[in-house]
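Renewal narrative, Specific Aim 1. Our central claim is that a sequence can be written position by position from structural information alone. The example that follows is taken directly from our test logs and has not been curated for this report. It begins with the C-alpha cells describing the chain, in the order in which they were read.
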C-alpha cells in the first residue's frame, strides 16, 4: 500500500475523481436495487453519496487512515447506518454475502501490480456477484505520447486553497517502466502560508500498473466476466480512439 494514503485530508482536497464519475456510480447503484460493494473505497468519495441515496453500501479499503476519515464523513453526513466500512484487500476479500453491484471507481484497479493479483481480485469479485449483478470500474487509457511528455519530469498537478488561507501545491515526478507497464510516481505536497512561507512538505510514492483496453477485456473473460457496456467518459459517450478513460460494466458469464 502506498504511503501517500496516510494523508487522508490532503487526499480529499486534491483527489476529485474524473468528471461525472460520482453521478455515474450513483445511478448505477440506484439501478442495481440492492446491496453495493465499493472496493478501494478510500475516504468514501463515492460510497457516501451512494448511501445518501438510501442504498446499503459496504466499503473495503487497505488504509486505516482512509477508513477513519470515511467513517467520520459518513457520521457527519448522517449515513453511518447505511455504510459498512471494512479494512481489507480487493485481492483476497471473503464476505458471507453477494452484491447486486460491485464497483472499483477512480482507477484503483491499477494498484494491482501483477497479473496474478488482478486475476485474484477478479475471481473474488465474480464470487461475490449476486445473480444478474454487475461489476463496474474505470481506468485511464494509456497513451504513448502522454508517457513521452511526462516521463522523468516534475509536473504541477494543481494548487488548492485551505480554509485557513494556506495553499497546498501537489507535484508529481513520474517514471515509466514499459516492460512491466508500471507508472512509478513520487508525489510531493507543499503547503505555504499566506505570507508565502513553506510550512510543510510531504513526500509519498505510489505505483500503478497501467492496462490496455484489449488486455482488460481478456482478463475479465478469463475470470468469468463479460463486458456488457463500455464507455469513453461518464456521460456514456462511446469508447473510441480519442477516449482518455475506459468505463466498463461487466456481468458473470
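The sequence written for that structure reads:
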Amino acid at each position: 500500500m502506498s504511503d501517500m494514503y496516510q494523508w487522508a485530508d490532503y487526499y480529499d482536497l486534491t483527489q476529485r475523481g474524473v468528471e461525472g464519475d460520482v453521478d455515474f456510480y450513483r445511478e448505477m447503484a440506484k439501478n442495481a436495487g440492492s446491496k453495493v460493494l465499493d472496493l478501494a473505497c478510500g475516504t468514501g468519495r463515492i460510497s457516501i453519496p451512494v448511501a445518501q441515496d438510501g442504498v446499503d453500501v459496504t466499503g473495503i479499503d487497505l488504509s486505516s487512515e482512509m477508513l477513519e476519515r470515511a467513517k467520520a464523513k459518513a457520521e457527519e453526513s448522517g449515513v453511518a447506518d447505511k455504510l459498512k466500512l471494512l479494512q481489507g484487500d480487493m485481492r483476497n476479500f471473503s464476505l458471507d454475502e453477494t452484491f447486486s453491484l460491485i464497483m472499483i471507481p477512480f482507477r484503483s484497479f491499477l494498484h494491482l501490480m501483477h497479473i496474478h493479483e488482478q486475476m485474484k481480485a477478479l475471481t473474488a469479485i465474480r464470487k461475490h456477484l449476486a445473480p444478474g449483478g454487475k461489476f463496474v470500474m474505470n481506468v485511464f487509457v494509456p497513451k504513448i505520447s502522454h508517457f513521452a511528455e511526462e516521463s522523468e519530469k516534475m509536473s504541477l498537478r494543481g494548487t488548492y486553497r485551505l480554509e485557513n488561507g494556506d495553499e497546498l501545491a501537489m507535484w508529481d515526478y513520474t517514471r515509466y517502466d514499459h516492460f512491466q507497464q508500471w507508472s512509478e510516481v513520487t508525489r510531493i505536497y507543499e503547503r505555504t502560508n499566506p505570507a508565502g512561507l513553506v510550512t510543510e512538505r510531504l513526500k509519498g510514492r505510489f505505483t500503478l500498473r497501467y492496462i490496455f483496453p484489449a488486455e482488460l477485456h481478456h482478463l475479465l473473460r478469463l475470470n468469468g466476466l463479460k463486458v456488457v457496456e463500455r464507455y469513453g467518459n461518464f456521460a456514456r459517450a462511446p469508447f473510441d480512439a480519442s477516449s482518455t478513460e475506459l468505463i466498463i460494466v461487466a456481468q458473470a458469464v
